[in-house]
Amino acid sequence: MNKKAESVLFSPRKPRYVALAEEITENIGKGSYAVGTLLPSEAELCTQHCVSRHTVREAVRLLQELGLVTRQQGLGTRIRSDKVASRYVLAMDAIPDLWQYVKNTQLKVGRHKVIQAGNALTPLPGADENDRWNVIEAVRHSKSGEPIAWKQVYIDSRYSKVTGDIGRRQIPIYALIEERYGIKTVSVKQEISAVAIPKEVAGSLRVKAGSSGLMILRHYIDSEEHVFEVTMSVYPANRFRYSIELRLEYGNGGSGRQ
């Protein structure tokens, strides 16, 4: 992989796989890749665009989500359509909401230690088992003092100097890392699942062990597509509300509203 060439071809403001998917989409629209034919192989796309296999695979995954291609085991990736299918996507003000949430609450840090990635309670994408990560356990409280969430925060050891500021400054941790190290967060992947609150967490939240709760797992990703922070938060069910809007989008990027 020629990383230097890849960094020149794609803007750091946009993930490389997105830029590649856009380029392939444009070529499909022009007829360079005809409907019904196969895309070049992964190796050929890597060579043609000076990108890694990971970038190609993520680009193809995005093209699948857009309904432009299908992957056939043993055959390759076939062009399905030259038009992006309508689809429902999540639309929310996640980052502004996160800033407001942090501003109006207080994070009290408990334990802080350095671990190997293989010992984390949740997978750390892209990390080798022996990579060192800082892990912080903390509880977020409302202004009235009520515990809102128990948190476990994993930070790539390259950014460990921010740990001293956590809980002291009322800005999100990812923003502390951006400020000190000059990196840029381009996406935050989030998963929400129902959990029974474990005994070791219930005490901190002042709830009964085994009571209903929500777990939110967030992966913070920089412009190089590296996960540099992972947060795992557990909320009592009656102390968390999450609202989103589903908006219909079309191939030209416009809204489905008339």
Please give a handful of descriptors for the protein shown:
alpha+beta, Arc Repressor Mutant, subunit A, Chorismate lyase, 2 domains, six-stranded antiparallel sheet, two-stranded antiparallel ribbon, disordered C terminus
Q: Can you walk me through this structure?
A:
This protein has 2 domains: 3-87, Arc Repressor Mutant, subunit A (Orthogonal Bundle), CATH 1.10.10; 94-239, Chorismate lyase. It has 7 helices and 10 strands. It has helices at residues 3-9, 16-30, 42-49, 53-65, 94-103, 173-181, 199-205; strands at residues 69-72, 76-79, 87-91, 105-116, 132-142, 147-156, 185-196, 212-222, 227-236, 245-249. It is an alpha+beta fold and 258 residues long. Mean pLDDT is 83; it is low at 1-12, 87-94 and 254-258. The N and C termini lie far apart (46 Å). A hairpin with a 4-residue loop joins strand 8 and strand 9 (227-236). The radius of gyration is 21 Å and the shape is elongated. A 6-stranded antiparallel sheet has the order 4-5-6-9-8-7. A two-stranded antiparallel sheet has the order 1-2. Strands 3-10 form a two-stranded antiparallel sheet. 23% of the residues are buried. 27% of the residues lie in helices and 33% in strands.
